Prior knowledge:
Rossmann fold, five-stranded parallel sheet, four-stranded antiparallel sheet, single chain
Amino acid sequence: MIQILLADDDILSLNRLSGLFDWNANGYEIVGQALGGADCLKLVDKFKPDILILDIDMPDKNGVEVTKQLQEQHSKTKILILSNYDTYDFVRDAMRYGAFDYLLKHQLTAGILLNKLQEMKSQLEKEGMSISHLSYFTTVAKQKYLQSLLKNGITNQEEHRHMKTQEDFSSRSFCLSVLQITNFILITHFSPDMDREKLIESIMTLATNIFASLHNGLITYMEYGQFVILFHYNESSTSEILSRVSGAMRLIVSNIQKVFGLSAMYQASDIFTDIAGLPGVFGLTARRLEQQPFSGSSPRSAALPEVSNSLDIQDEKVLMDALAEMDIIKIKTLLQDIFSRYTSASGCLSQQIIFQLLQLGIRFQKEKGLELLKDTDAEFRNMNFSAMSQDAVFRLLSDYFVKIVEHNPEYGISHYSFHIQNAILYIHQNYKEDISLSSLADRLHISPTHLSRLFSKEVGTSFIDYMVSYRVDKARQLICHSNLDLKTIAEQAGFHSYNYFLRTYKEKTGHTPTQDMNSKRSCAPSG
């Protein structure tokens, strides 16, 4: 595997470069990232990479100076320059000192970079260099081993002996930090552009870049938006170690906020010396993190007993039963009870329980054959979950479950007769189609006159008026939660005449669809 060193004084540029494609899958291993020229020279000496991808314009030592010094040291590392238009004079000098080639930053794509790396790889092979640097100790391998240690402890002594030869696991002193993305589950559940796995990978890449520039810190992902970072030290006092860890974690948190717009909180462990004790250290540190006051929440008494991080089977069953019964009052009461019993001393409900609650909602919707509310309701997608307090989280989940019930066409019709229940369900499921009283009566095997009489008696309005009102309500939702034009909205709401839609909409709401589209008045709850 070809070993690559990245050098750029901009951490965001490093992050973009390292996330451009799957380096390991293409036969490359990023062994380090440098945030300056001087730092780059140290890492070249330490790792002796096959290829150095070097930013030409850095404040302490620019790319020309780095390239010249490596030439004087007879380094065999191939250098690929990254440049802007206005630094070509620098590029020319760097090429004179032996740089392999250059690429323009603003034109850089995965394909362009991979092609250039393949050229450099071919050149290395021609020069007879050994490129079999494939090692067990890649960053990914160490991250996976750290995750295994945290979950299971030492399970394979031979593997552990190998890993103990690595500085990450063999130093004199260690400090563990647990980092939690605030409301991670809500963010990745409701935000359509926030793919959970991709977000995890991006945060891991960003953190790995930062820790590489600090020459300390190994990060791994656990679950539900929780990351763990292991720091190692050989010659530092306790106070100095904790200060360095705090500085590194503040840097991570601030960059997560800057790059992804997400909030995070962390807790560092005490200093420890035995790597075999990692599971216990992790458990204690994670519990300490749970005790931290959550933004906007009222912490519970520390004297209260610890609470479970997972819903029990009975809680799940009772809530699913309440959903099946479509009993909104019961659902709200159960959610209030769950929040009361499972909220930790920090005033925070665990991400795992929030995940379980949302999965119960999805399960109910799928059993009923409904469109998933998280995909269709823009009100939830546009919320700022990262800044949401736990009180707001409760209100959100309560509103979400109420909407799931109300979204079910069967809701609110159980007290009607058999024929009227079926008639309403058919309208709800087929309102976009051309439905007439006669066609619906034929489907129900009753006469149009009898259906009309039943509708007026039980629903309190005529069949036509009910269907038109339902279509207008669907049009209001589309005006509020989509960017469609009015003609498309009319068609999707079941109106086959645009003029009839305009006239009917105003009769039912008191204002025109254009007025609602301009003011978003239709987003307010209907009376």
